């Protein structure tokens, strides 16, 4: 995501009527925006609250996140873990590890979240699962690859959520006007729509969340 899809006034109104961020999330939001030129990649207040609520409804025992960034979504998703549950999160940029770890600790989740640094496609096969919830928010050209890598690790009845499935609104443009990432997202969206093993909902929250329920192997 590089630009917001909703008018700023609507975003601010939605934020005002959403439960406030915890101190750890507020601090992480602030520091990410102060220090990172790509802070627009942060899930942020409203989407983070949506992820937290979805996780609380699913009540996962095990979560896998592909794309940690600075840790905002990891914290939100981990809040919905069942007692004794655990989360694995993968980030390719080693420079982000300490910032994410700092706020994961402030949120009291160090013992419940394991951070992995490296290439997701290499790390995913080393994780046994099963994962009741998988969140995909990494490099867009590999969304389909990640989906296939994790699908067998998700039990029937489990969920996958993919971020940025509207990709700045480019997905509604003619293919000739879409950038590389938007084209990859369009292929991913088409793949999900054609997959009879799942039910799915494209929710226009922030840059679009594809919420996927596995109904068969």
Offer a quick outline of the entry:
The chain has 217 residues and is an alpha/beta fold. Helices cover 38% and strands 17% of the residues. The protein has a single domain (8-214), classed as Rossmann fold.
Map the helices and strands.
Elements: H1 8-16, H2 23-35, H3 44-58, E1 62-66, H4 72-78, E2 86-91, H5 97-106, E3 113-117, H6 120-123, E4 133-136, H7 143-151, E5 159-163, H8 180-194, E6 198-203, E7 209-214
Parallel strand pairs: 1-2, 1-4, 2-3, 4-5
Antiparallel strand pairs: 5-7, 6-7
Helix pairs in contact: 2-5, 3-4
Number of strands: 7
The mean pLDDT is 96
Strand order of the largest sheet: 3-2-1-4-5-7-6
Structural class: alpha/beta
- State Rg: 16 Å
CATH class: Alpha Beta
Let me know the CATH homologous superfamily: Vaccinia Virus protein VP39
Residues in helices, as a percent range: 25-40%
What letter string, H or E per element, gives the SSE order? HHHEHEHEHEHEHEE
H/I helix tally: 8
Distance, first to last CA: 31 Å
The count of domains is: 1
Characterize the structure shown:
- With 217 residues, this protein is an alpha/beta fold.
- The chain has one domain (8-214): Rossmann fold (3-Layer(aba) Sandwich).
- 38% of the residues lie in helices and 17% in strands.
- The chain contains eight helices and seven strands.
- The protein has helices spanning 8-16, 23-35, 44-58, 72-78, 97-106, 120-123, 143-151, 180-194, and strands spanning 62-66, 86-91, 113-117, 133-136, 159-163, 198-203, 209-214.
- The chain has a seven-stranded mixed β-sheet with strand order 3-2-1-4-5-7-6, with helices on both faces.
- Helix 3 packs parallel to helix 4 (72-78).
- The longest helix is centred in the N-terminal third of the chain and has 15 residues, at 44-58.
- The radius of gyration is 16 Å and the shape is globular.
- The mean pLDDT is 96.
